[in-house]
Amino acid sequence: MVKLDATDKRLLELLQNNSNANVKELATQLNLTKTPIYERVKRYLREGIIKKYVAVLDSSKIESSMVVFSSVSLENQKLEGIEKFKKAIENIPEVVECYLMGGANDFLLKVIVRDLQAYHLFSSGKLAALPNVSQIKSTFVLDEVKRSTVIPLFDLTSD
Known about the structure:
Blueprint: H1 6-17, H2 23-30, H3 34-46, E1 66-74, H4 79-89, E2 95-100, E3 107-113, H5 116-127, E4 133-140
Antiparallel strand pairs: 1-3, 1-4, 2-3
Helix pairs in contact: 2-3
């Protein structure tokens, strides 16, 4: 884990909200010169704090799509079986997020498909065919209320 000072946190917050901001704009907003901003951003990339820059698309404007959360239980929770499942999920484009969970289910997947028929084909053809899968429970999104890629960096209980 990397220790971040207040300037790091503010700069990362600005970059999360607009990764297209140039160094001059960032320096102005942080009341610094361009050089320390440039050096910090280089450090974030070098240390892996910034993994990559992406474009966040508005799915409602490009084509119809359906978001489904799939809870997956494995037949057994042995490390080898968990690792095989994780490796297999990495190569499935419909799965946009995957979390190993504690509790009732082993994995929670966020899946994006075109429609209900496409989800049926995905869940029965791809997901159920993965190694060690015992059970799949699906929950369908009716309305996206909030979606964000921003990771909060400030402790809300202090200044």
